[in-house]
Each structure stands twice: as C-alpha cells, then as structure tokens.
Design goal:
Length: 333
C-alpha cells in the first residue's frame, strides 16, 4: 500500500535536491529520508532517483510521478496545517513547533508553556532555538518569533512589541569599581562581548562603538550566557531589557536609547489559523511576550551608581559596527 508520508518525503527530496537539504526542511534525520525513499521505490517497483555527486536527480519515472502528484502533496500539507485532516478543530492536541531564540525560549518555559500544558494535557510544544529563519511554508515550524517580517501573503505576522537595550552590571561588579559616568565612558571597565553569529547585532555593534579602552573579560555567542557572565560579576553587558530587567542579579545602569528598538513578530502560516493546537500556542506566546516586552520598555525601578533610568548619552551612531575604538581590539591592561 502506498504510504502518504513516503510520497511527501520523495517530493521534498525532488525539490531540495539532496537528502540533507530535504531532511532539514522536514525536520528529520537524513537517514529517515533515505529510508522513506527506499520504501516508496520498493512499493512502486521502480527507481525514482539516481544518485550523483551533485545530489539526487529524478529518473523519468520519478519525474512523471512528481509532475502528477507534487501539487497534490502540497495541497494535502496545507490541508493538514489547517487541522481539518486530523479533526484538530475539536481540541488542542498534538505537536506544535515554535522556532525562536534562546532568550525567548527560556521566557516561554517560565510561564506560557506550563500554562499551556495545564490547560491542554494532550499538547506537546517543541522549542527550536536559533537565529536562522524557519521556512513556515515548508513546515519547518508551526510558529516563529523573529525580528524580521517576511514578505508574501502566505505568512501572517503579528507585532508583539519592541526590544530595547540597556547597559547592565551586577552588584558584585559595582562593589569592586564605580559605575561608568556615562554609557560611552567605559575606559578601564571589563565587558562581556557577543561574538560569532551575534557579531554585527545591536549589542556587539554598540560595544564596538563605545568600549574602546575596555577589557574583554568574556565573549560568547549566547545571550543567556552573556547575561550569566555579567550576573557573575565578570563585566558590563549590553542586553535586551526584556532579558536584563528580568534577572534580579543585574542592574540596568543606562537605557541605551541610541540603539534602534527592534520589532518582534509572531509568524505563522495562514492555513494554520484553523488549527486548534496552533491557535492555542500562538495565543499563549502572544500574551506572554506582549506583556514582557511592554514591562521591559518601562524604566527600571532600581538604580545603582547613578540614575539607572536616565537615557543613554551617546555620540554618533551607536548601532554602527564601523564606529571607532572597537572593543574587539581593546588592549588588555
């Protein structure tokens, strides 16, 4: 009997060109794609692909099959996303994949996910963390929380609020040295620097512009790790206020208003609106993040070493990675 999933894997392979690329689209291991393809070929009794150094190329039989059924496969996927194929309009059950950053995933685990599990015991939430875009049209995720709003009519984008930034320190750090007199005056201070895929982001760009003469104590490609390093007293850190204000070990010394706020978008495929499980998760994510972002936009209640709520006095373009005195070149002393 022909297995619908085998056909879906084979069509995705035809579009992606390689087993590895198809596996990424489908969110499975490459061996699963190969196994599904072998099962389909055995069922049909024909060879659908020929493997070459460039990847997999459909045979004549494979091309006829995909030309005839490829569109139907995608129609059925859209039908599935709508929830009608599984009767999801009757209740929020099953798996929902949410693509988001490490920081947002941690926030969702604090409140939104526990509440969802209590209300919908049959629901499974998968948090796919990282900064790479997820292709919602290919089913790589059901929901995504991102800074970029994609073009096109297939993706619904809902604005959740804006991320703003501040300069943070721990009480332990401030006990050893005074707070900087201004956010641009970081001479002799220790800093925690974003690196790798975070390089060029607003946090690293601001430090590159204003931390000349500071010492790089720790660098990391993880924002939660950067926050933890600052909380341990290892240095000053530029953080999203939604992260820094939520950590009781940290104090916001300055609001860095010169860094342009970034809009946070909740994204989902338009066909997913009819799916109860995706609606339930989308509502929980939207409510939680909207409230967090609104709270983080307000001035902090606590202060240390000066007026913590005072706007940053910056000179030049604080978000420009080409600004002078790059922290990555700061001499250790």
């Amino acid at each position: 009997m022909l297995d619908w999933n085998d056909l879906r894997y084979a069509v995705t392979l035809a579009e992606a060109g390689t087993v590895r690329a198809a596996a990424r689209r489908l969110g499975v291991d490459p061996s699963t794609v190969s196994r599904r393809l072998a099962a389909l070929e055995a069922t049909l009794g024909v060879t659908l692909y020929l493997k070459s150094v460039r990847g997999y190329a459909p045979t004549a039989a494979g091309r006829r099959l995909f030309d005839s059924l490829g569109g139907l496969v995608r129609e059925l996927e859209a039908f599935e996303r709508g929830g009608l194929a599984r009767g999801d309009d009757e209740g929020a059950t099953g798996l929902v994949r949410v693509a988001t950053t490490e920081v947002t995933a941690q926030h969702l685990l604090e409140r939104a996910v526990p509440v969802l599990r209590e209300r919908h015991p049959g629901l499974t939430v998968e948090l796919v963390t990282g900064n790479s875009p997820a292709d919602l049209t290919r089913g790589e995720a059901d929901l995504a929380v991102r800074f970029l709003r994609p073009a096109g009519v297939e993706i619904i984008a809902r604005s959740l609020g804006e991320v703003r930034y501040g300069l943070y320190a721990s009480a332990g750090y401030l006990a050893r040295r005074p707070a900087p007199p201004a956010p641009e005056r970081l001479e002799g201070q220790d800093i925690v620097l974003p690196t790798r895929e975070l390089r060029g982001g607003p946090e690293e760009a601001w430090l590159s512009a204003h931390a000349g003469g500071a010492r790089v104590a720790v660098q990391s490609n993880s924002m939660p790790t950067i926050a933890s390093a600052a909380a341990a007293g290892l240095g000053l850190a530029v953080l999203p206020t939604v992260l820094g204000d939520g950590d009781p070990r940290l104090t916001r010394l300055w609001a860095l208003d010169a860094i342009t706020p970034r809009t946070v978008w909740l994204l989902y495929h338009r066909d997913a609106r009819a799916t109860a499980r995706i609606r339930a998760v989308a509502t929980a994510v939207e409510d939680d993040l909207r409230e967090r972002l609104a709270r983080a936009a307000a001035p902090p209640a606590r202060a240390a070493g000066g007026d913590a709520a005072k706007p940053a006095r910056t000179s030049g373009d604080a978000a420009s990675p080409r600004a002078r005195g790059a922290a990555t070149r700061a001499p250790a002393r």
